[in-house]
Amino acid sequence: MPTYRFLALIVALEIFSLFTLIIRLNTDIMAILHFGAGLAIPLTCLFRTRSTNRPTYTLDAFWSSAFLLGLALFAVEYFKEIVQNHPLDFRIADMLPVIEIMNQRLLNMADPYAPISEIWSGIQPIYLPALWMAFLPAELVGMDLRWMSLVASFAATTLIAKTQSRFHFDIQLAILVLLVWCGMLLLDTRFFSMSQEAIVLFYYIFLAWALIQKNPVLIGIAVSLCLLSRYILAPWILLLAYLTWHKENRRFLVIGGITSISVVVILLSMGQAWGYIPLFIDLQQHYIESVMSDPSNYRPLIKDSIGMARFVPYEGLVNLHKTSLLLSVALPFIMIGLRRWLFTHLKWNHYVLIALKLSFVFYANLLVMPYIYLFVPSVFLSLMIYKVFIADQTVAAAR
């Protein structure tokens, strides 16, 4: 079997194991399959050899555009039903109601991070600026915030199509994209109905796209957006800095670094978040304390979701969380060592993309609160990696 077909099969398995939970297949098996498929995708790309095999059926720019248009019409139709059937209610999920109030406060020149008395008798907003301010356009025009999630998800899909110089899908990638969207719109709608995760998804796909372009300004912007939405990326930056220093030049790293720092300063200032940096730093500790203090609330979540937490005794979740943090810190150093001695033949930007996928796989599958929607950005990264791999194979076949 050609490697690109094997990779497509693994990505399909990762998608299948995530969204089939809704039809109550054996969750233990699905959890193992999802973790295994997530690991197999970057490992397949690490150990692949160049091949003259390439996809036979490729949609050109016209048919790829037609596919995206059809996907957009399909998505809007079902998305309207999701919004209509699931009004925002903090008693069901408080994330978007909190973000809505934060944006309203920003527009009214009030402190977005002051406790919100209307929700749970005074909830403390904890969201990083790039995450909650992404919904500001919807608040400005009076739209339901969740339309921004649809726009972000579709923008991420479009970037996948435009990852290389040609705007196109091969037929296998088009099927994989359709499967993911069907999962989000038809099977488990919580990704759109109650979560803000589409913004995180877009930022990380934008980062992957910027890496493939090898544009230091775009990479700097993307890194800052990722850091100020969900900072699991932070240790991975060490690998990025190391390889850009050694494989590009110092100017590349300096431009990217200055851009990233500038965007971070702007976003923290616009979001009035400077005084809340200690709150952000303590989030991980508050996170695990919250889980351990309320087992009656979180046991059902763990039981009904994928992730390795389901195989760990409840009192062992603290150690699982520590393992996740340790892996996130250790992985960049492991990848630097492997790059020096084993994977010198890989393009540096492809290598850091593979490492980013590995970071996401460990992060999602070792969560102690494994909400299904938190796994979706990792699946989209798999689509991006597949597209990059196919383009590489096509170049090799053309030589």
Care to describe what's here?
This protein is mostly helical and 399 residues long. Helix content is 69%, strand content 1%.
Q: What is the terminal-to-terminal distance?
A: 21 Å
What is the radius of gyration computed over CA atoms, rounded to a whole number of angstroms?
21 Å
Q: Which residues sit in consecutive blocks of at least 5 with pLDDT less than 50?
A: 394-399
Strand ordering within the main sheet? 1-2
Helix-strand string: HHEHHHHHEHHHHHHHHHHHH
What's the SSE blueprint?
Elements: H1 3-19, H2 27-47, E1 58-59, H3 61-85, H4 95-107, H5 129-132, H6 136-141, H7 146-161, E2 169-170, H8 171-187, H9 190-193, H10 197-213, H11 216-227, H12 236-247, H13 250-270, H14 277-281, H15 283-293, H16 295-303, H17 317-341, H18 348-365, H19 376-398
Antiparallel strand pairs: 1-2
Helix pairs in contact: 1-2, 1-8, 1-19, 2-18, 2-19, 3-7, 3-8, 7-10, 7-19, 8-19, 10-11, 10-19, 11-13, 12-17, 12-18, 17-18, 18-19
